[in-house]
Amino acid sequence: MKKTLLVFLILFSFFSFNSLGQNTENTIEYSYNNFGKKEALIKRIEEIYKQKKKASYTKEHEEELEKFLDKSLKRIKSNLEDSTYIFNEELNSKLNNILQKIVKNNSSNTQEHTILINKSLIPNAAAYGNGLFVVNLGLIYLLDNEDELAFVLCHELAHQNLEHSKQKTDSIIHFYNSKKTKDEVEKIKNLSYGKGKAGRALLKKIRYDITSTSRVNEFAADEYGKKYYLNSGYKEYFAYTSMKKMELIEELIFSKKIAWDSIFSFKNYKFKKHLLEEEEEEMSFFDSDATLDDFEENNPDSLRTHPHIKDRILRIKGEIKDTLNIPKTINSSFKKYKTLAEKLIIKSYIDQNYLDVSFYMLANKLNAENNTFYIDEFSRLLIKLYRLKSKLALGKYVDQPSNSEEKSSLDEIRMFMNNSSIKDIRELIEAYEKHYGLELKI
Amino acid sequence: MKKIIFFLFLFATNMIFAQSKVIENISGYELLNSGSLSDNNNEVDGYYFFYKVDDLEDRKSEYAIVILDKNLNETARKSYVGNKYSRLIQGVFDGNQITFLFFNEQRKFIKLIGYDRKGQEVEPLEYKLTRQDVIYTKNQYDRNNEIRLIPIDKKGILLKFFKNQGEQVQYIPTGNGEVWGMKNEKDTIEYVRNKVVDIKFGFFGIGNTKVGSRELKEYKILGIGKSFAAITEFNIDASIHIDAYNHNTNYRKQTKSSFFKIIKVDTGELIYSEEIPYKIKKKEQFKSYLNVIFTDEEIVALGEYYVGPKNLRKGISSGLFIEKFSYDGKKLSGKQISWENQLFQKFQQENKEKGKNYVFFHNVVKTDDGFVAIGEQYKKAVSAGGVTAKIITLGLAQASKIMIKDAYFFQFDNDFNLVDLTKIEKAKSLYGGLSDFSTPQESAHYLNTFGYFDYLQTQVDKKHNKFYTTFLDYDNSDKKDPKLTYKTVVFQDSKFKETSFSIPKNEKVKYTALPAKLGYVLIYEYDEEKEKSSLRLEKIDVE
User: Within an 8 Å CB–CB cutoff, is residue A172 touching chain B?
Assistant: First the structure.
């Protein structure tokens, strides 16, 4: 089930959406299209890709390299258009300031840096080389202070300075265009029987070669990143907690229980708890909860691009003095960035109609924080839910619950959204309107 | 979020290189077909996707069968090695095992393979077929899917197929139980192979030659429930002809008599049997059972009755009948409702041409208050174009057509008194009937055999006294651009409400609506440009 959640989140990050472009007190604007900064940014990224083309190690497969980079550039431009990459003055400044501080204290590279913020909830960051970085909103949402965030940026800066992006690009192009690969492909094509098996084995071997290099590079980036981190005056302990949180991502992101009665505690309204239960008896084909797979090609451990976090933490703990006595608290000055990231995720996910994740993030905010942002966003969510159900389009954005016996909060939300009738949602909207004194247009 | 079907292509690296595309082509899985794992209430338990993985030696192939549950969660990806010409035609789940039915035209067999609760393959069953069996099987599969598996909850499966030139019904237990079957005896006719046939040419067609005759049995499964099956067994005199044009043999059939049978499925015990002679006298009646439902208390059969041989031959029924049976095989009651007396009056009043409108019944459903019979209105229509064509072709073209119109729901109380009639409007469809000389009823049966009526299926939600009936329809709001629509009529709170899903017209994305778990529809989208397919479930909902 956890794997399903991750796959869901990963798929999520590739979907595009359009911002409504409203800029009122309680809404947050995030599309580059509305800040007059997109053209300059595109020019800067184009410049980066020109540099990348010039800086290739090998001229052997120049044409293929150019195609590869052109496609990558096209994807980034497209993601700027569809607001996969978002702009927020405060968050962009914060990230730039941290990165500048690290660069200044390490004087390792004087190159100009550009950070793009991806709206994804997945806590992740990436170095594209030549000064281009991407940081996901989910990372800021997950981490608790500047030190933890700085460690991730140090790690990415190390990737860049060690030219891992360039190495990876070159190795992919080499693998696919080498004479050896071409000969192997030709041999497989001429096979009368077992062509598919041989082809998949070749793919697996190429993937293994690429990912094993990638895992070595991750350890190297941790090692160099640690040096940048310490040189910049950040606290050792938070390098460890930053990594630890990556390991516990699933528990941290979807661990909260939904207080259904409390969320929908409105006068003259009783929440229908049966909406959280399967409408008909659950039935499984097999006794096992896990997927029965006769094919080995899926998710083999050897094809991970990153080493296991616990191995990475072990290395860091071995080299950084363990200072576990530092209290684990959320830095108050950092809290506003976390909140901002959370609001941006909520808004962008509602904009994209991914209502289950945004419901989860909003659910326990309504009563805990009397903030009009959350109240307004929740009303927007309910109206979208009503409209999508009316158009038989909810399933495009909200899955059915997983088949795991142990249902997560996200499963509960999906059950509620799928089981509710249009009438149920309308009644809920009416009660919500009265409770918060709103006038909503369905 | 929608599910991406072609999840077997998991290679994540950017595939822009010529070499990588070549590798993708040789290593990819080819989707051969897919289908739903349904039960007897048309509820979907899950879905299967059948992929070819590899060509192997000895004319074998490796296949992958990917199984999703009813919520589209992947539960298994099984490898199966079989003959390269095998077609997977159906999959069912009976609670004990998932069973797949394969048909191999070239090697002349049908085969059942199954996976038990642990996901282990069970001993396969193979039935050898003759060339005639293969032709019949192929025709039946292509037309109305009469070669099929029927799951019996937690007991086993019924297999209806064609062997020894006759239909067979065989029960295969998947838990405890005995194998039993209803079958034709082995054919006694020696076929004349490679015989030079004396072809008689007609004015506008090619004749055929009779080479033999025999007695045949055919079976119609009327309903399954509570581990009981109701079956009509038709006894037929069949003459066998060689079609000189298609170089095929075919049957000309004439019904002798039929038997209505109720059988306890897990033992094969016949609990009720009634012979219904086809040869009747002027005032005698013939019963044609439409379907049988199994309530907690009794077995309820619904059908149409015909009075006199002339009406029977022309398919003109006199009304509906209902019969009730106990589970120990006793006939409890029977009732007839004539079109003249009760039922048809309101229906005819709603449709202006009195006596010229008919209903084709598809199903009957038990509700808390009684029964609902589900039908579609049809009538004979003469098209102006048809008349002109008839004149030009010296009478060979058909002038008369059958018009299929609105859906009708006839509500009865528990004593089968008509309580109400509900019309659900849908677009007209016009089809050529059987011939200008056939009755509308005869044409309606012919059209139903070939799937021309708009009725698709009914799902019953007994727990909530609710059912869903789906029809194909057209959204004509934009007359220049009508859209294919799935119209679902929901019976809830003793009222009929309707909702519909129009298939969007998009040159790049193709849509299909498919059966799903109770109260849902499965929407399949294929984006031709991106070569991506997706599936999603949507709740059928009415306010």
Answer: yes
As for the ipTM of the complex, it is: 0.81
Give mean pLDDT, residues A127-150.
92
CB contact under 8 Å between B117 and A286, yes or no, is yes
Interface of A with B in 277-316 (CB under 8 A): 279-280, 283-288, 291-295, 297-298
Measure A180 CA to nearest chain B CA, in Å.
11
Domain boundaries, chain A: 2-284+297-436
Q: Does A203 touch chain B (CB under 8 A)?
A: yes
Tens of pLDDT, residues A150-209 = 999 999 999 999 999 888 888 888 888 888 888 888 888 888 888 888 888 888 888 788
Question: Considering CB atoms only, which of A403, A419, A422 is closest to B75?
Answer: A403
Q: Across the interface, which of A197, A292, A403 has its CB nearest the CB of B119?
A: A292
Q: From CA B2, how far away is CA A91, in angstroms rounded? A: 31
For B207, the 3-state DSSP assignment is: coil
3-state SS record for chain A: CHHHHHHHHHHHCCCCCCCCCCCCCCCCCCEHHHCCCHHHHHHHHHHHHHHHHHCCCCCCCHHHHHHHHHHHHHHHHHHHHCCCEECCHHHHHHHHHHHHHHHHHHCCCCCCCEEEEECCCCCCEEEEECCEEEEEHHHHHHCCCHHHHHHHHHHHHHHHHCCHHHHHHHHHHHHHHCHHHHHHHHHHHCCCCCHHHHHHHHHHHHHHHHHHHHHHHHHHHHHHHHHHHHHCCCCHHHHHHHHHHHHCHHHHHCCCCCCHHHHCCCCCCCCCHHHHCCCCCCCCCCCCCCCEECCCCCCCHHHCCCCCHHHHHHHHHHHCCCCCCCCCCCCHHHHHHHHHHHHHHHHHHHHCCCHHHHHHHHHCHHHHCCCHHHHHHHHHHHHHHHHHHHCCCHHHCCCCCCCCCCCCHHHHHHHHHHHCCHHHHHHHHHHHHHHHCCCCCC
Which of the residue ranges A110-114, A217-221, A356-360, B293-297 would you say has the lowest mean pLDDT? A110-114
Q: Taking phi first (over 0 means left), then psi (-120 to 50 degrees means alpha), and beta for anything else, what does residue B494 get?
A: left
Rg (CA), chain B: 25
Decide if A176 and B19 are in contact by the 8 Å CB cutoff: yes
Q: Token pair for residue A79?
A: 């993601």
Q: Is-contact A311 A317, C-beta < 8 A? A: no
| CA pair distance A312, A251, nearest whole angstrom | 19
Chain A neighbors of B12, CB-CB under 8 A:
207
Query: What is the spatial order of strands in the sheet that B483-492 belongs to?
Result: B455-461, B466-475, B483-492, B495-502
Q: Within 10 A of B394 (CB to CB), how many other CB atoms are there? A: 8
Decide if pLDDT at B219 tops 50. Answer: yes
Does B3 sit within 8 Å of A194, measured CB to CB? no
Token look-up 């993937």 returns: A207
pLDDT band, very low/low/confident/very high, at A14 (cuts 50, 70, 90): very low
H helices of B354-460, in order, are 384-392, 440-449
Cβ–Cβ below 8 Å for A185 and B23 = yes
Q: What pLDDT does A296 receive? A: 63
pTM score, whole prediction = 0.82
Probe site for chain B from A181, A285, A287, A427 (most B CB atoms < 10 A):
A285
* DSSP SS3 for B233: strand
Contact B14 A71 (CB under 8 A): yes
CA A32 → CA A24, A40, A44, distances in Å? 17, 11, 14
A349 close contact with B: CB closer than 8 A: no
Residue A319 has pLDDT above 70, yes or no: no
List beta partners, residue B487: B471, B500
Q: Which two tokens stand for residue A138?
A: 């989910």
**Are A418 and B518 within 8 A, CB to CB?**
no
